[in-house]
């Protein structure tokens, strides 16, 4: 892989001000940033990602005081959630102000706002001084990047500045809560779970946060998002057990790769290109998820098999990403 020269905050801020794109780490995934008030930069962003311009992007801010200028009003729920989770892995959808361009909002009445906690993201946003529009720094519909190397391998040298913050701590995208409608709804599950959101909002029942309409208003809610190139299938633990018995492994007729909670069987056979042992804790699993999917995807196999995680709420965001990765329609 081609080595990128190390970039400084000064390079990054200058690039943003000149309408260039900057990739930077957040605690969830790497973002591809553009000055949120610069139409040319935003168009460049959509073109590089290969993302349809009707899909809204999140505006990243450094502090709560900047919020007022981006939305019409800051509802009480936003204050409660911000106090608890910002800076952090949470995005709020709020009614937009005029400052939020159509290119940012996808022409909707709302704008997505996040104050990330990663120190590099924080410093970049503080120095830049206003909103940075940033989707994940990958090609549209593909696996989000959780390291600077992932960004380079997805977007190559088209990004002028990449700030390298090592591996992302959380590893999957932020929880999105829509506060622009009559009641709060979760549009995308994340590592801040539905129970925590309900608790902070004083809701008795987490079902109140379920998004009723499943309209693909956000790309993250489209079935084929976060997909590796190789077809992916989620399989039961029993299926992994059967597969792991040597006679069955010998019978496989096309190369597969596996992400399983179990260790690789000692006799793998040459039909298994890659067997990655997943972490048993959802926080650790999420941190490695996209890196692991990339390893499986690069193994040259024809099918990726992923052992289904437990059916409990703390695995909900991970299962959401796995289901989308499996659904390549
Ligand atoms: O963790 C994250 O959220 C990362 C980091 C870089 O902040 N960003 C990210 O961006 O995942 P992106 O563009 O890959 O996904 C953002 C999601 C999309 O599904 C987008 O449609 C949705 O947020 N979104 C943004 N503004 C919205 C709005 N006004 N209404 C509904 N959905 C919105
Ligand atoms: Mg994305």
Describe what this molecule looks like in 3D:
The protein has 329 residues and is an alpha/beta fold. It has helices at 9-17, 39-49, 76-85, 102-105, 119-128, 148-155, 194-201, 237-244, 246-251, 282-297, 316-326; strands spanning 22-24, 31-35, 58-60, 90-95, 110-114, 132-133, 161-162, 175-178, 185-188, 232-235, 256-260, 272-277, 303-307. The strands form two sheets. The protein has a nine-stranded mixed β-sheet with strand order 7-1-2-6-3-5-4-8-9, sandwiched between helices. The chain binds threonylcarbamoyladenylate (TXA) and magnesium ion. The site of threonylcarbamoyladenylate has 28 residues, from strand 4 and strand 5. Residues 26, 28-29, 31, 55-58, 91, 93, 105, 108, 110-112, 114, 116, 134-136, 173-174, 176, 187, 217-220 line the site of threonylcarbamoyladenylate.
